[in-house]
Amino acid sequence: MIKQKYVLLNCSNKQHAMRIISYNVNGIRAAIKKGFIDWLKTDPADVICLQEVKAHKDDIDMASIEEIGYSTHWFCAQKKGYSGVGILSKIKPDNVFEGCKIEQSDFEGRVIRADFGDITLFSVYFPSGTSGEVRQAYKYVWLDEFLEYVNKLKKKRKKIIICGDYNIAHKEIDIHDPKSNKKTTGFLPEERAWLDKFYDSGFTDGFRHLNKDPHHYTWWSVMRPSTRLENKGWRIDYINVTDNLASRIKEVSIFPQVKHSDHCPVYLELGDA
């Protein structure tokens, strides 16, 4: 059985503005070869949530990241070269929790949490379901287990931010071709209904809170390289916040010009409390 690890860092943080990025890097080592470290040097955010790092801690160039001023926190999959999440932060968290006490999810390294004062922030890599019926069935199990976990946590931690690759495009506006993809995993009615339930449980879509425009995507298929140039993508990466934080959202953006991955970074700035 996988045991949840706790890293206690014990400090207090006043609730000032926080710049947050969520980014599926599709392999941190590959991203570093494509200029990820140089991008970090541009100070893109105070806290960067990574997904699909595909590496164990010993394989990651921690020193180059920490020299820039980021503390590094990782929760890697037991299987090498698979899944894994991380949080890079210029703001020292009070606590870091690796995993979510759900055995299969923790085995796959899908959830890491950091607390900053009264705000709890997650980096989460949702299952994709693209490899077949078995994984699609597991995706539905995972979604329900994760929402139950979050709802229990909300009783103690009222202000929550969930960054991640959700592997679900919510609305037709979030996918370039909704008609031909209506039976494709990531845009199935059951998956979209789960996101409806998730938002109804007390969460706000951070990007859509300020930006209602179409043609904003965060992932493009590598099967056809031209899809990114043509902007034929999906918005499946999110920074979602509990409704009580929505009024503090000051700026949101998506950065398709940042190209270390088949995904791109998603940005949200939280203003002072």
Give the key terms.
273 residues, Deoxyribonuclease I, Chain A, 7-stranded mixed sheet, 6-stranded mixed sheet, 8 helices, globular
How much β-strand is present in the residues? 25-35%
Please give the oligomerization state of what you see.
single chain
Give the low-confidence spans: 1-13
* SSE pattern, N- to C-terminal: EEHHEHEEEHEEHEHEHHEEE
Distance N to C terminus: 40 Å
Going across the major beta sheet, what is the strand order? 1-6-7-8-9-11-10
Mean pLDDT rating: 94
Helix content: 10-25%
Output the CATH homologous superfamily.
Endonuclease/exonuclease/phosphatase
CATH architecture: 4-Layer Sandwich
Strand tally: 13
- Quick one: overall form? globular
CATH class: Alpha Beta
The count of helical stretches stands at 8
Report on the biggest sheet. Answer: 7 strands, mixed
- CATH T-level fold name: Deoxyribonuclease I, Chain A
Structural class: alpha+beta
Radius of gyration: 17 Å
Number of domains: 1
Structure description:
This protein is of the alpha+beta class and 273 residues long. The chain has one domain (5-270): Deoxyribonuclease I, Chain A. 23% of the residues lie in helices and 26% in strands. The chain contains eight helices and 13 strands. It has helices at 28-33, 36-40, 62-66, 103-107, 133-153, 189-200, 206-210, 226-229; strands at 5-8, 18-24, 47-51, 71-75, 85-89, 95-98, 111-116, 119-125, 159-165, 203-205, 237-242, 249-254, 266-270. Helix 5 packs parallel to helix 6. The radius of gyration is 17 Å and the shape is globular. Mean pLDDT is 94; it is low at 1-13.
